[in-house]
Amino acid sequence: VQLVESGGGSVQPGGSLRLSCVASGFNLGDYAVAWFRQAPGKEREAVSCIDSSDENTDYYYAESVKGRFTLSRDNAKNSVYLQMNSLKPEDTGMYYCKTNFLSGQGTQVTVSS
Q: Does residue 54 contact residue 38 with C-beta atoms inside 8 Å?
């Protein structure tokens, strides 16, 4: 079983990135999935979370990303996506997706002019 993140990169402020979290070995739709980020010298921060797939999906967004980041699922691809728009330098960090029992290796996001 594993989670693999991708989609990170270097962008200028105001740019966009779409992070992917793909699960293998289990059905990701059965679990809540959270995205965390950590920048050097800073504490890990919960960015966004999506509930397990059911009729009443709940979402969480940190205040710092509300209105800019959007979380979504594609159960057919066993994946969760984090669309990040209007990126700011303070969004820089390593982004990880996690379930309650597994974490990926992370993908680096750098926002700089």
A: no
